[in-house]
Each structure stands twice: as structure tokens, then as C-alpha cells.
TrEMBL record:
Residues 173-186 have a biased composition (Basic residues). Residues 76-204 form the DDE domain. Residues 162-189 are annotated as: Disordered. Pfam families: DDE_Tnp_IS240 (PF13610). The lineage of its organism: Bacteria, Pseudomonadati, Pseudomonadota, Alphaproteobacteria, Rhodospirillales. This is IS6 family transposase. InterPro entries: DDE_dom, IS_Transposase, Transpos_IS6.
Length: 237
């Protein structure tokens, strides 16, 4: 149980639990700002969607930073993939890396789909993870192999579209948010949103595979407790 209010909520008239709950709803589920506003209104909490947006920017960024500091264990098998997205009627590419358990390792929005873009993603990954992968799985884009050679990585490299479903499936939450937000407005907006969205979803990432109902409920309770720790408030509004 949290006994002291987190200092990051100092000066706000709404309780920390309310702000924490709003931020959790917005980044955990494909909800619009107005949907979150309405869900809070059903609980008797009157707050505008613009306030929810400001909470998401300030507190979501801080929570995501705290999650990264926890350095959650990630696998040594990296799935890399890139998908085209439209931003302000221009084509961009969303590069994403996930491990074998579906945890997002990093995401990068770039205007290119070439060797330079692939190298930027891999360098960022190597720096953040502090180690090279044991296995790297990609589609058949030749840029990956070229970058692996340039960076002198000795990991096994598997190139096959069918093997990379893990990374391709990880794009689905972003696609849902893109529709809910009526398309992304700028590369900066996408990068900023996903830099908060993905760490939060990693924290509460629950796999139902081979779990009994009681085991799943226990894992969910543990995830809620982890949220209360990093957000400085329990999930109760």
C-alpha cells in the first residue's frame, strides 16, 4: 500500500488515484480522450478531455521513464519489423523490435526503409539493451543483413516472413490507436505517444498461454501492483 502521495502529483487538485487511473485507461486501451472523459464522468469525476491529454503527456512520460529504469528482463531473441504508416498524407515507416515473449524493446519512426534506417534502429537497440541478441529474426529486407555485417554482429540471423509474426502482430495495437486518433499528425507525435504507450503495455503485458484462471488473476494482480509502484497511486478512482 502507498502511504505517502507521490511528489509528482503535488499541486494538482485531483487525487493521484484519479490521475493514475485516467493515464492507465488512455495508454492501456484503444480509447479516445473523450471516451476516457466519459468513463470518468460515469464515476462522478468531471474533467475535460484536454485535461486528460495533459495528464497523459506529463504523467505518462514520467511513468514510462520509471518503467524503463526498472530494466525489466527481456529475451535474447529479437524480432525486427517495419510497417508503413501515413502521417499528414506522407508515407513513413514504423520500425519496431520485440523479444520472443512479445515485449516491445524499442520503436522508431523514420521516413526511410533502407540500410541507414535499419542501422539507426539496431544501434539504438544495442545501446539500450547493452548486449547483442542471440538470434535476430527479420523479414527479407536486405538492409538487415547489410547492417548486421557492418556492425559485426555474430548472432544468428533468420530471414523469413513466416517467422516474424511476433513483430508483425506487435503493430496491431498501434494500428488500433491510429484509427482511434483519426490518424497521426506528425512523426514527433507518433514517437512521443509510442514511447509512453509501449513501456506501459510492457509493464502490464499478460500472456494467457498455459495459464490457469487463478494463475492469470494472480499475474494480473501483480501487474496492477507494479503499476501502483511506478505511478505512485493504485488503480482506483
Amino acid at each position: 500500500m502507498i502511504t505517502r502521495p507521490d511528489p509528482m502529483y503535488a499541486g494538482y487538485r485531483f487525487p493521484a488515484a484519479v490521475i493514475s487511473y485516467a493515464v492507465y485507461l488512455y495508454f492501456r486501451f484503444p480509447l479516445s480522450l473523450r471516451m476516457v472523459e466519459e468513463m470518468l464522468a460515469l464515476r462522478g469525476i468531471t474533467v475535460s478531455h484536454e485535461t486528460v491529454r495533459q495528464w497523459g503527456l506529463k504523467f505518462g512520460r514520467e511513468v514510462a521513464s520509471r518503467i524503463r529504469q526498472r530494466r525489466l528482463a527481456h529475451g535474447d531473441k529479437w524480432h525486427l519489423d517495419e510497417v508503413a504508416i501515413s502521417i499528414a498524407s506522407k508515407k513513413h515507416y514504423l520500425w519496431r523490435a520485440v523479444d520472443q515473449d512479445g515485449f516491445v524493446l524499442d520503436v522508431l519512426v523514420q521516413s526511410r526503409r533502407d540500410k541507414k534506417a535499419a542501422k539507426r534502429l539496431l544501434r539504438k537497440l544495442l545501446k539500450k539493451q547493452g548486449r547483442a541478441p542471440r538470434v535476430m529474426i527479420t523479414d527479407k529486407l536486405k538492409s538487415y543483413a547489410a547492417v548486421k555485417k557492418d556492425l559485426k554482429l555474430r548472432c544468428e540471423h533468420r530471414q523469413h516472413k513466416g517467422l516474424n509474426n511476433r513483430a508483425e502482430n506487435s503493430h496491431q495495437p498501434t494500428r488500433r490507436r491510429e484509427r482511434q486518433m483519426k490518424r497521426f499528425k506528425s512523426p514527433r507525435q507518433v514517437q512521443r505517444f509510442l514511447s509512453i504507450h509501449d513501456p506501459i503495455n510492457n509493464l502490464v503485458h499478460l500472456r494467457r498461454d498455459h495459464l490457469t484462471a487463478s494463475e492469470f488473476r494472480a499475474a494480473r494482480a501483480q501487474a496492477f501492483a507494479a503499476w501502483a509502484e511506478v505511478a505512485g497511486a493504485p488503480l482506483a478512482a
